[in-house]
Write a structure and sequence with these properties.
There is one protein chain. The chain has 21 helices and 15 strands. The chain is an alpha+beta fold. The longest helix has 63 residues. The N and C termini lie far apart (127 Å).
Length: 640
């Protein structure tokens, strides 16, 4: 029986190529024997097998050496960039355990002050007692390594009499379950500073190459420890030098900061800077976060600055200096992020608080003056309709108010206690305070919205521009929300119809104000305090209140959808609605009036409900719809 010897020998190359286990190399010979190969062929295969296994062993050894060299190279790289000694030692122990294939690896260091040895790094350990071992000098296998400065290995720790056994060491080793242990010294010159160990929980013989490899790791560990010690000594020396220079720098920096803040604050005042500019400049100079907080803010309340007269005060990690004028606390400059404030910086904070007080007083005076001017212009529009339009435009332009644009007059009032109510002590003082607060908030809103505001008739009147696409009702509701939010209590707003150009028709402002007041009174009577509305929001009541008597607009808002539907579809919904209300809202009588089937009436009324909404038969809506039907019929008769 012939046999392909070349193919069988080539199979060993395939086994080498894919890194097969040693047992797989017996298979080619077994197959050849099964196929009846002769003695010569079997001898050749056996020779090829021995050669292949030798090559396999050399390749495995080469790979092992490459892994060892790679690990040593990585360790040297770690030492070159040493930042954390613990991380470097941990990497050395991990690599030793991995390359030696042991279950546990650990490193002990000598403690000259305590006179013993302690565990520094462990890898693979499971016993807390073992990880916390402290050993007397010369005890255990490590003590033998330290005494002789040579590696030692035992394949059965508890049966080895060469080193001194102690109860502490044996208990820790027994807890960890170690049997075979290899230890190599960590040397700095001729001095042993510790021991690097590799260990298994079963009997094992460590080869010469493995002992040498662990020794290389131990040498790297010793270099890492020596480097870290040198770095530590260098850092200590540098720290002492830095501390000596820090005092000089601090004194110099304090003087420079004081000079810098003085220059910055002077520049801010000269160029008209604001409170937040002062806080920003102070943040940079004091190297913290400075903000201006109002008097009623939580941070100012916590600092308890009342009566401190601008002196800096500390509360926990926060510093504050009161900003006050004439005994009134306006707020405070609050510094965070710089708890250790020296006396010079404290005076800097206090000086900045004084500058802030001056800026706030100047701004308050300017704001009050502008508010008075705005109020005077609106008073003239209300009380002197014969003013020259050109002069009105010029005065408005100086206040950034365009009196040739469409405007709306708003009447505003805080809904507090009823004036003069019995049993309401201090009602008059409360009303006066409320009017002042309302005027202040309305003046601010008018200034930011390029409008005007003035006090009148126990409330406030505003003249605000109307944005494109906006309505008087929208503006009223928005203003009620803004003023109510600012004052934290309901503010009711009544709005007029749109005044197209106040400067061209000054007399229209007084008429619009009267309409806005009527709308305001109607809202209060309707129980809609805190709301904002125009006459068009109030249905037929708005029709009565409005000066314009916008009948067509009222009809369109009330039944416009039904009228439009009839025009588009040629239906008779408007006449059906009229007959329905005339018949006492009875579908049976309505069908007799219209001479149609009762189902037809029902279908038409369903269509009306879809157009006007499900509440169209409620008393209030029904009244408005009937009035709109009458007005619609009158307007059609006039057209005819």
């Amino acid at each position: 029986m012939s046999h392909d010897m070349t193919h069988d020998q080539a199979s060993y190359l395939e086994l080498l190529a894919r890194g097969a286990a040693a047992e797989a190399y017996d298979r080619p010979a077994l197959l050849a024997r099964a196929e009846g190969a002769g003695p010569e062929a079997l001898a050749a295969l056996e020779h090829a097998k021995r050669l292949a296994l030798r090559v396999r062993a050399e390749l495995a050894e080469r790979r092992r050496r490459e892994a060892e060299l790679s690990a040593l190279f990585e360790t040297a790289h770690d030492l070159a960039g040493l930042r954390d000694l613990d991380a470097v030692l941990r990497a050395i122990v991990q690599r030793a355990r991995s390359l030696l294939g042991t279950e546990v690896a650990y490193l002990c260091l000598n403690d000259p002050e305590a006179g013993d040895t302690y565990m520094r790094v462990t890898e693979g350990s499971v016993s807390a007692r073992f990880q916390q071992l402290r050993l007397g000098m010369g005890e255990g296998l490590g003590g033998l390594v330290a005494q002789t400065a040579r590696p030692y290995v035992t394949d059965s720790y508890f049966d080895d009499p060469r080193f001194q056994h102690t109860r502490t060491i044996d208990s820790g080793v027994r807890d960890e379950g170690l049997v075979a242990i290899l230890g190599v010294p960590l040397m700095l010159g001729s001095q042993v500073i510790g021991v690097l160990f590799a260990a298994d929980r079963h009997a094992r013989v460590f080869e010469r190459e493995q002992i040498a490899l662990l020794g290389s790791f131990a040498a790297h560990a010793a270099v890492a420890i020596d480097t870290a010690n040198l770095l530590g000594e260098t850092r200590t020396a540098l720290a002492e030098l830095e501390k000596a220079n820090e005092i000089i720098r601090e004194h110099s920096a304090v003087i420079e900061r004081a000079s810098d803040v003085h220059d910055r604050l002077t520049e801010l005042v000269l160029r008209g800077g604001g409170v937040h500019d002062v806080a920003s400049a102070l943040s940079e100079v004091l190297d913290g976060t400075v903000e201006f907080a109002h008097a009623d803010s939580r941070s100012v309340t916590a600092l308890e600055l009342t009566g401190t007269e601008g002196h800096a005060k500390r509360h926990g990690e926060v510093w504050g200096a009161s900003v006050s004028a004439g005994g009134e606390l306006l707020g405070a400059l609050v510094l965070r992020g710089h708890p250790g404030l020296d006396p010079v910086d404290q005076r800097t904070l206090e000086r900045a608080a004084m500058v802030t007080s001056l800026l706030l007083l100047a701004r308050r005076s300017a704001g009050e003056a502008e508010q008075r001017v705005r109020g005077e212009l609106l008073d003239d529009l209300l009380d002197a309709p014969d003013r020259d339009p050109r002069l009105l435009r010029e005065r408005g332009a100086r206040l950034r108010a365009d009196l040739d644009a469409p405007h709306v007059v708003l009447a505003a009032r805080i809904d507090g206690p009823v004036p003069g109510a019995a049993g309401a002590p201090g009602a008059t003082e409360r009303e006066t305070a409320d009017r002042r607060r309302l005027w202040s908030a309305a003046s601010h809103l008018a200034a930011t919205g390029q409008g005007l505001a003035a006090t009148r008739d126990g409330g406030t009147v505003l003249l605000l521009p109307l944005a494109p696409g906006d309505t008087a009702a929208d503006l009223a509701r928005r203003t009620a929300g803004q003023l109510g939010g600012a004052l934290r209590e309901p503010v009711t707003i009544g709005a007029s119809t749109v005044v197209e150009a106040p400067a061209a028709r000054p007399g229209a402002i007084a008429e619009a104000y009267a309409e806005a007041r009527r709308c305001l009174d109607a809202l209060r009577l309707l129980g809609r305090s805190g709301d904002g509305a125009a006459a068009q929001d109030l249905g037929f009541l708005g029709l009565l209140l409005a000066d314009s008597r916008d009948i067509e607009g009222f009809v369109d808002r009330t039944i416009g959808e039904v009228v439009a539907y009839d025009l588009r579809r040629g239906t008779d919904l408007v006449r059906t609605l009229g007959a329905y209300f005339a018949s006492g809202m009875s579908p049976a009588r309505t069908k007799d009036e219209l001479h149609v089937h009762v189902n037809t009436v029902a279908q038409r009324l369903e269509r009306v409900a879809r157009l006007l909404g499900p509440d169209w038969q409620s008393p209030a809506r029904a009244l408005e719809i009937q009035l709109a039907l009458r007005l619609h019929a009158m307007s059609e008769a006039v057209v005819r």
